[in-house]
Amino acid sequence: MAPQDLTCDRWYDGSLTLRQPARGFRATTDAILLAAAIPLDVQHPLELGAGAGAVTIALAARLPKLPITAIERDPDMAALLARNAEDNGFSDRITIITSDALLAKAPWHGRHDLVLANPPYNDISSSLSANDHRKASMAAADLGAWVMASAGALAPKGRMVMISRADRLDEVLAALPPIFGDVSLRAIHSLPDAPASRVLITARKGISGALTMLPPLILRKDAENLTAEMDAISHHRAAIDLLPPGRNFGKVRLPY
Length: 256
Known about the structure:
This protein is of the alpha/beta class. It is built from 7 helices and 11 strands.
């Protein structure tokens, strides 16, 4: 991509840089929230549909020395992800696979203890040029297909962590059984009196268990100020707990 087609954004008090397209798919607060919801003891996470790498880069910053695999089917975006990894000093730990993350059979299947997914769930076709129909076709993602892709990539007892628009939560929940159980949800509200706009979802492959609805995450106290919790998350000082007290993500035996 030409330099004029990109922006260079700084996250976590400027400690991370992220180059991304000036228009079309762009990383938002969702990426920061998803990266913050990953436990410190994960072994080898995989991000599906990584785009320019916002979640992968943020996760690499949170978890030093951890190997991370990112899958992105658009060669231009995969190249941009590689550049972002190099710019932030993470190239030696991030493996980038240029492929469709939703393949029914793939070399990465069954090899990860945790899969992250931030599916493209907005219809942005009106903002794309005539040459961007391939990207537009991804905008209204089949969330059930992303759940199945997560299941394929996970080793037995591994966990999926996904962020979804709140009004599409029913699609995700309908796709989970019988493969996934031990489901936890945390609704995300922009303001204390606003309806939920997003939901963080975690579920475990091959494990049964009741669904748990956790206390909500409120992003802002008012139009001008973040809540203390979101301020700590956005400045890389805190994580998001997606499990009820006394429960952990669980250890997974990887096939290597």
